[in-house]
Design a protein that fits this description.
globular; about 200 residues; four-stranded antiparallel β-sheet; alpha+beta; TIM Barrel; single chain
C-alpha cells in the first residue's frame, strides 16, 4: 500500500514492489492472478505506480513463482504467485518507452537499488572495475515470444500482453549464460554473503 511505503521509509526501512502490483488490479481474476499480498483496487494500483515513477520505491522484486498449470487449477487451493522471471522486464520497459519512467530509474530499480537493499552494492549494480559483470542485453525494437521451455508454468501467455522489448542475452559473471531464450551455460556458484555477518554492512 502506498501509505505503508511512506511510513516505512520515514522509519528508515527499504521498500520494494512487484510488477503485478503496479501493472494489475483486482479486475484481473482467476488463479493466474492470485498473489500474496492480493491485487488491489485500480486507485491503489495507480498510486503504487506513481510511487514507482517518482522514486519512492527502492527496488523492483519479481516475486517469481513458477507454479504448474495443475497447481493453478482451483482458486480455493492454488498457491499464490506469478511466473515472472524473464517476462516482467519487457513489460515494465513499456513505461520507459512511453516516457512515464526514465531509463536510468528503471536501471536503478532493477540493479543498483536491489544491491543497496541487500548491502551488496560493492559487488553489483554498476558497470565498474571489481563489480560482478551480470548484464542483460535488451532490444527495444524487437518483440519476441517468451519461450516456456525452461519453466513448468505453461501459462505464460496470460501475462504477455503489452510486451515492449525483448531480452536478447544474459551475462552472469562476465560469461554468456543465455541468448535468444536458450540457456548456454551454468555460471559458477557465488555466495556474495560468504564470510560476512548478516545484515547491512556499516559504511
Amino acid at each position: 500500500m502506498p501509505s505503508t511505503l511512506r511510513v516505512a521509509k520515514s522509519y528508515g526501512a527499504t521498500t520494494d514492489t512487484t510488477p503485478h502490483h503496479v501493472l494489475y488490479d483486482y479486475s484481473h481474476e482467476g488463479c493466474y492472478f492470485k498473489v500474496n499480498p492480493p491485487l488491489r483496487d485500480p486507485v491503489t494500483r495507480s498510486l503504487m505506480l506513481r510511487e514507482l515513477i517518482n522514486g519512492g520505491i527502492d527496488a523492483l522484486a519479481s516475486d517469481h513463482a513458477p507454479h504448474s498449470p495443475r497447481e493453478k487449477d482451483s482458486w480455493a487451493y492454488c498457491p499464490p504467485g506469478i511466473p515472472w522471471l524473464g517476462l516482467w522486464p519487457p513489460l515494465l520497459l513499456g513505461l520507459v518507452r512511453s516516457g512515464a519512467l526514465k531509463l536510468t530509474e528503471f536501471l536503478r530499480l532493477t540493479s543498483l537499488g536491489p544491491a543497496r537493499v541487500l548491502g551488496l552494492d560493492h559487488l553489483y549494480g554498476l558497470l565498474e572495475v571489481n563489480y560482478r559483470a551480470n548484464l542483460v542485453v535488451i532490444d527495444f525494437n524487437g518483440w519476441g515470444r517468451f519461450s516456456g521451455t525452461y519453466s513448468k508454468a505453461r501459462y505464460l501467455h496470460a501475462f504477455m500482453e503489452g510486451l515492449q522489448a525483448t531480452i536478447r542475452a544474459v551475462f552472469v559473471g562476465g560469461g554468456l549464460a543465455a541468448e535468444e531464450g536458450e540457456v548456454l551455460l551454468r555460471p559458477p556458484a557465488l555466495n556474495p554473503f560468504e564470510g560476512r555477518e548478516l545484515g547491512r554492512p556499516k559504511r
